[in-house]
Amino acid sequence: MQEFKIALKNTFPIFFTYIFLGIAFGILMNNAGYGLLLSILSAVFVYAGSMQFIMVPMMVSGDSLISIAIMTFFVNARHLFYGIAFIERFRKMGIRFPYMVLTLTDETYSVLCSVKDEKGIDDKRADFFISMLNHFYWILGSSLGSLAGSFLKFDLRGIDFSATAFFLVVVVNQLREYKTKWPFIIAAFSSIVFLTTLGPKDFLIPAMTATLIMISCLKKEIVRKEGIQ
């Protein structure tokens, strides 16, 4: 099946990322008292990458579902913007449309944007296999991590720092890629202000809200600086 081979080739680099991050998430879930089944269900239905790491301590601390939902919206709000570009493309895929929406992660988006059309290949099937394989990698990693957490006896404290490390890598890459630094300056300023005034437990949502508002106000300047048409 040519479409599957193309999908496998294009998602192979993501395999290593998702496996290792998924293992870290599964171990984190196990240490928090959530077993293999919940790890798998989270990987299948939540499938929110970094948000899943944030979700675990929020659940442990007893945060409400509303708080978790709001946090999920802010952390993954970027999906609203780049997902718009794929609405018509996914609609043409019929019954697979909901699944394609669910599985549109940052990495899958990048692959779908970069994969080249080939003669004699069903693009819709190739897109579906790309999304499915990436999803499978994450589920497999989460499952392995949950199982490993049940058997590993050494001290696993600090495994949750993998989420922080992941965010740091993303931020550094974004800093290097974009010309304007205003979004980063605004985010840092908002975080410091609200962390100082509200404390570590309550600062994140107000800080992200303020950041979003200020960046929206500077949208024209940011677009001009980036040279976006």
Written description of the protein model:
By secondary structure, the chain is mainly α. Helix content is 76%, strand content 0%. It has 13 helices and no strands. The N and C termini lie far apart (39 Å). The model has no long low-confidence stretch (mean pLDDT 83).
What does this entry show, briefly?
The protein is mainly alpha-helical. Helices cover 76% and strands 0% of the residues.
The unreliable regions are none
Q: How does the overall form come out from the CA principal axes?
A: globular
Strand content: under 5%
Rounded Rg: 19 Å
Helix percentage:
over 70%
Number of helices: 13
Protein structure class: mainly alpha
Could you report the average pLDDT, rounded to the nearest whole number? Answer: 83
Largest sheet: none
Question: Tags for this entry?
Answer:
single chain, 229 residues, mainly alpha, 13 helices, globular
